[in-house]
């Protein structure tokens, strides 16, 4: 009965998401409509969908696991990482949103990150577009594959179906609504899934507290009170602060946020969205960390998949089905933004390199096909269910941070950044991320991405300083024009 209830919930959720995608088909007939919703996204849709796509998966796979695995010590780290993610999300909307929206429209009305970088630096050779496209494809695939792995492991453990079948079903659902509805469907389904996740997480700690006996409640209260003592171990505190700064800065390099800035209706909507973006994130992160502490008081099987652990801790069949559905929403809402990124880049950036005279309709068709093909390529990568999901998930985040955070931020606020510096920064950040993760370089518990991000930023500044080919008059005039528009209310 319990497994049947989970399957019923999953079927209803699947039908709802698929129907949403089909309903948005008419709004995704053009390339601009498919990739950027014809730049018509409202402040609420943009802000809440950014919470779903960035925070939900990260909060479960990284923050809840850190809290559960490390107890009070891990919860302190999770609070700092969560605060950094929340503040980072707000600052990205505050300092990058409007400027990127204006810049992308002035720079040949670009719709994707690779096209924007090519237009921003006036790269006639398309080297920057190719390099950035390859990097996004690599790290989006990695990032997405472990979200699919987490979703499939959870669905398999909760419903009794095989891991391969669960993985296939999750992939089919995501590919259907991306295939038909494009970015509009992604945003709407992210809002829906984020709302389900938020509501369930809001009531879950109350349910778990009520399920504990007096002794377990006492142990939880001790853990919680110890968590609030951030100065208990000063050495760990400094490591956590360094990692938190990395998480904060890494938000500036997330392509999924770039897509939302591009798709916003106007800069006024972005100004309103920045105030809303951090609110659900802050509440959700606290709830997720507290849930991780509660989980330590339940007898569950040993596994590194925190979502499976959480589902095993829930005794009531109806509540368990709700929790499984909410966790699936968290994973799929984060995964679909990566599939949408891959789809858009294949149709808008990669395909025209081979067929320059392709019209808008043809490129939309390629983008739709790419959504399906890339989803199942990611599934093939996800077939290994034994991977350490939390660690690998951070690997994808680190790749985006190191490759794009420095070049995106400095290109918005400095006209002195050169084309060669941008290419060198993206390549150095990517290569450094690969090397450090391959050799498992993590001194004193510091994230390898911290080093990669520092290397990428240093290369960007050094190459820009020594490069004799400075930005041309066209770049300088465009930069000045963006500044003028930014001053207008």
Q: How would you name the CATH homologous superfamily?
A: Sodium/glucose cotransporter
> What's the order of the H and E elements?
HHHHHHHHHHHHHHHHH
Q: What is the count of structural domains?
A: 1
CATH class: Mainly Alpha
**Count of beta strands:** 0
- The DSSP helix count reads 17
Q: What is the CATH topology?
A: Sodium/glucose cotransporter
Report on the biggest sheet: none
Arithmetic mean of pLDDT: 88
The N- to C-terminal Cα distance equals 58 Å
Structural class: mainly alpha
Strand residue content: under 5%
Apparent shape: globular
Helix content: over 70%
CATH architectural label: Up-down Bundle
Poorly predicted runs: none
Alpha-carbon Rg, integer: 22 Å
Can you give me a brief rundown of this structure?
With 489 residues, this protein is mostly helical. It is built from 17 helices and no strands.
